[in-house]
Sequence to fold (116 residues):
Amino acid sequence: MTLGFSSVTGLPPMTVPFDEYVQVPGRAFAPFPATHHTITGHVVETDGDRATLHAHVRAGHRVPEGRAGGGPDRWMVAGFYDNEAIRPPHGRRLSSVRLTATHQENAHLSGPAPVI
Fold:
C-alpha cells in the first residue's frame, strides 16, 4: 500500500505491506499524549473493483509536557484525504492513503517523522 504524508512529514510517498500499515498510526501517534481526528464529508466513487475516497480532516495532537516550552501545546492539521481502495477476493481494502494538509497550526511541534 502507498502512503503519502509528505504535506506534513516532508518525506516522499512510500510503499509498505498492507499488514504493516495497521501499525503505522500507532507508531506515528505514540509520542502524543492525546489526538483527536475528525474526518467528514466523505465522497466515495466506485468503478468495478476500485474505489476512490475523498474526505476532509481536522486533527489535533497534544504534545508531551515540556516539549512546548511554555508555548502552545497542540499541533493542528486541517486538509483532506484522497485514498484508493481495491477489492481482492476477501473484501475491499485500502491500497493508497494520501493526506494533503491545507493548514497547520504550530507545525514546529509535529516532531520527527515516524519510522515505518
